[in-house]
Each structure stands twice: as structure tokens, then as C-alpha cells.
Amino acid sequence: MIAVMEAKGLSKHFPTRRGLFGGSRGVVRAVDEISFAIERGRTLGVVGESGCGKTTTAKLVLGLETPTGGAIQFEGHDLATLDPPGRRRYRKSVQAVFQDPYASLNPRMRISAIIAEPLVTNEKTEATEVRRRMLELLDLVGLPERSADLFPHEFSGGQRQRIAIARALVLSPQLVVLDEPVSALDVSIRAQILNLLRSLQSRLGLSYLFIAHDLAAVAHMSHEVVVMYLGKIVESGEARALARAPMHPYTKALFAAALPSHPDERRDEPVLQGEVPSPLAPPSGCHFHPRCPHAMARCAQEAPRLRAVEGRQIACHLFD
Amino acid sequence: MANKLLSLENLSAHYVSQQGTRVVRAVDEVTLSLDAGETLGIVGESGSGKSTLALTMLRLLPQAGRIVGGRMMFEGENLVDKSEAEMRQVRGKRIAMILQDPMASLNPLFNIGDQVGEPLRVHEGASRSSAWQRAIELIRSVRIASPQTRVTQFPHEMSGGMRQRIVGAIGMSCEPRLLIADEPTTSLDLTIQAQYLDLLRELQRAHGLALIFITHNLGIVAKMCDQLAVMYAGRVVEQGPVSRVFSRPLHPYTKALLGSIPRMTEEREQLTAIDGQPPDLAALPAGCAFAARCPDAFDRCHVEAPPEFSVEPGRSARCWLAAPGVHRAAEQSIPLSRSAAS
Questions:
Q1: Is residue B275 one of the residues assigned to a domain?
Q2: Does the pLDDT value for residue B339 go beyond 70?
Q3: CB count, 10 Å around CB of A36?
Q4: Which of these, A99, B50, B268, B308, is most buried using a 10 Å CB contact count?
Q5: pLDDT band at B330 (very low <50, low <70, confident <90, very high)
Q6: How many domains does chain B have?
Q7: Do residue B268 and residue A216 have CB atoms under 8 angstroms apart?
Q8: Nearest chain A Cα to B226, which residue?
Q9: Model pLDDT, residue B271
Q10: Is residue B301 one of the residues assigned to a domain?
Q11: Which of B189, B195, B221, B272 to mutate to test the interface with A (most CBs of A within 10 A)?
Q12: How far is B287 from chain A (nearest CA, A)?
């Protein structure tokens, strides 16, 4: 398997200032030494709660933030050392679809202009060719040709998300970052979009970085899943296996908190207590230890490293 | 009917434009009932009328909205006939409500103690100091640590999950008989949502409270509810006990909705998507509102809207396929079990 994109020890730390003149300087470790690879034609799902670093990870992958440590490798080259043409190629190869299709489409532009914009700014393409490509994409995402001359307000949420997908695909990218792509949509429309994304993946050989808080949707869409907690990966592995039998205490708690899909599945497992601590002052050792039902003395002192356990990666002292 | 806590009978609420030219039938001939201590889930997509139904029950419709027909019997009284002053005695005291965004339901300028104690002072004439003491107990009952210091704090000093607990404490302050929760956990993280749902269930058991969940999330219904009503285009298209509706949905819309949810441990290439869009409530089609998207629609569906057919005790569906006589044939032609739906 060829990795389209690989993150190696990737970190993003944001400095914080306190007081008017920026006295004591702290640091928020939004993403802390995470590593993952996304292979051609496959989907990597990222799950975790607010503040776990999944959005920062997406921004790093999209090149919207520069890492403070580690590296992103694209086609075997370090992104930081790429020459300008190489960086341009990277930006064309990695596109994004965001959560809110009401915010991500310019209300003053016609659909044809919205979809063609990446082509116009990135490539010297002839007008007839631009139009041909734009119509091809409309067809690909299941919208009629007449949509081209309309404005975003004339479309429903699901149709807008199709337009956003068409725009993301116009440059024939290799990797698409999907940041909560169906959370803003109605239940009956979500399945349409998830089905479309899956069929596009198999037709075009796309890779996805799929970020969502709906665990069942992530399990459905992904080949591999990484679970993050306060900037660190706590568990990663094959999606189905991980969803069926989570091993890290946090992953267990997270999946236990997921809602059942049938009333007969009602489980009365103990619910995880407490809240995610502030990333400004994360707990010592393993960040999860204050909420962990299995915490030992060691967990408060020493941060566990990711290690291979039964075909997946887990960062927990229970598996040493 | 006598021992029902709440029963809505053919309730309709419409929004009318200023000129009276546009009528949006947001809630149309809804018949529902709820026993004391029971939990009802009202499920629907945006624009299905579920939030308007919640506002109607509290008589809090915006100016353009009006109740155009039906009755709302609550503890033997018809809420539709009550004056505004009488309704104020019901809201917050006998029926309480929790909204989606806790920041919007809390006043940022008042401390938590005053806000939690306010209903007690208004409805029960409690003194400031006794309301303050009760507020501390209420905050403890929603499992917030060190309530003595929390009462003096302001909403911005709390996390989203904690704010939503405070809203729950305000709702519970006068020990209502019925609590209506409109998407109460949509803005919360997964583990915080689970904690909150547990808390609601605990409060319900402790006080014999009846709960109505207004939600688009079938998972919440599966976890929390006894009864389920599915709304589509302003109407209740199917209702019944949760486990029976989930195992054997009668209405094609319910069936499609259940088939469209990804499941954690099930390998499926494609989800059952529902094609098309929900209809415009101001221009509803002549027949069944779902007919245009329905895989099982036949000629009659496009001309004549189906009435509510009672299928078995406590179960009904607004679908011609559920009509007496048709029912048997429908059972054979439509996949009914959960596995067959995938």
C-alpha cells in the first residue's frame, strides 16, 4: 500500500499569553506528536471530543497551519522542504469539504463559478474546458446541468453539500479532508451524502480524512480510525475491529456513550464521569488518568507511549 | 383517556402571513397522549413541525402562529382555552421546558443562584433566602460539585454540559409533572451527552416526571423513550411503543429513516437513502406528503391523504398501506425485520 500522506510525530503548540504585557507564557499542545498514514483509496477516521485536536489536525493536513514539530510527508517528500511548485502540487492534491454548506459557499457566486474557481486560480484552463469539467462534476455529484446558473440560496443543505464536494473534486485531488461533512444535514439527507462520498471514493480512488463526532458514521465510512484525547492519539486500528471491541479505557467509554441504534441494545454501562480537562493545563502523565476507572499510580507520573497491541496501536499502561 | 397526563386531540397550529395569503401548516391534526411518568420521543427532520408542536404545548407560539383547532388536555384541563395569565401558572410550574442552547436560556447578567431560584419565587412566593437555599439543593441534585460556590457564579464560568445541567435544575425547581426537552443534548460532547441523559432519567425516576424529547436523533429515542411519534410535514405519520416501531416500522418514512442510519458493527456498502427533499409546508401536495419520496407509493397516495389508521392497540400510522385489509399484503411486500432493512 502506498501512503498518499503521512504524518510523523506531528505537533502544533499554540503559545498563550497571560496579562496585559504577556507575562508568563504557557503553551497549548493542541496536537502532540501524532503519527498516521493515509493510504490510496482509503479512509482514515478521526474521532474525539471537543478540544481533542481533530480540527487542528485537519488544518495541518490542509496546510492552513504550520506544524511546530514533526513533519507531514506527501508522496515521500517533507512538506516543509518542498519547493514552491511542489507546494502548489500539494495544495491541489489535498482539498476539503466543511461542516456547514451554508457558510462555505459564497452567496454572490453562481454554482458554475463556485465549482470552477479552483480551476481558474490554479490552472491555466481554457473557458470551454472549464465549463466541460464543471458540468462533468455536477453530473458526478448528482446535480442537474441547470444548477450551474443558479445561486447557493436556491439549494437545500444536502444539495449545497454536493456543490461543495464538486468544488473539492474539480482539481482531481488525491486526498479530501471531510470535516463533519454531514453533521449539519437532516437525517434523511445524511445517508445520501455518505453514499455519494463512498461511491466517489471507489470510482475515483480518493483518500479521505474523515472527521466526525458520530461514531457510527465514522465506523461506516472509515477503513482505519484514530481516537484522540487532548491532542494525543490514544488508540488506532482497523475501523470495524475498533468499533466492535475498543481496548483503551477512553475509547471504551466513548463507544459506551454512543447512542444505541435499537432500543433492545440499551446498555446500562457506567457512564464516564467528569469533563475533558482544559488543554491549557492537562493532567500529568496520561492525560486521561483523572477520569479513568483503571488508573494506577504510574498513570499520574508517566505518559504512556503508543505501542502495538493485537494489531492496533494503544497508548495505555494497562497494555505494557 | 381519563388517567392520561397529557392528550392532544386533533391539534393544529398554523403560521399565517400578514396578508393571510400564505399558510404554513406546521402542526396538522396531531393526536398524541402521554401517561404520568412516561417518556415520549417526537422525531422529525427540520421543518417537520416538531419544535412548533413543543411551542404549541406551552402556548408560546410566535405572533404569526396560532392554534387553529383541537384540544390539549393536561391533567383534565384544556390548555387551549386558558388565558395568558392562567398559562403563566402552568409554564415552569406544571410543565417545564429545556431548550437546545443552554447559553440562550440562561441570562448572562444574573448569577446561577438567582436564576435557579427564580421559578420558586414567582410560583411559590418563596423568600429570597429560602429560594437561594433551595437553589443550592437543586444544583446538588443535578450532580454539580461544590454547589455553594456555584450559586454565586455566572453562566460564562461554566462548561456547556454544566450550563445544560443548570437549565435542568431550573426546569425541575417547581417539580413539574411534565418536562419538554427540545434537542437537549445536540450541543454537547458524546460523554457529556451520556451523563446528561442519565441525569434526566434519574430525575424522572425520583419525581415520577413525564418527559417529551423533541429530537432528530433516533439514538436518543432508542436509549430514552417508551413511546415514539414520527413527524413528517406537520403530521404524526406513525406512533407506538419504541421497541415495536423500531423492530417493525409501519410507515415507509419510518422504515427509510431507520435504514438510513449507519450502525456501528454492521458492514454495509450503501445506506438506504431517502431521495428528494421534504415538501414545502406552505404548498403541500394533495395526497400524502411523503408520496413523492415513497418507494411504495401507488395511485391513491398522490390524490388522497391517508387518515390515521389504528393498527394495533397504541399503534397507528398515516399510510394507505396500514389501512385495514391492505395491512396483510403490506406485511409481505415490505421488509419488516431489522436485518431485512439493511
A1: yes
A2: no
A3: 20
A4: B50
A5: very low
A6: 1
A7: no
A8: A263
A9: 87
A10: yes
A11: B189
A12: 21
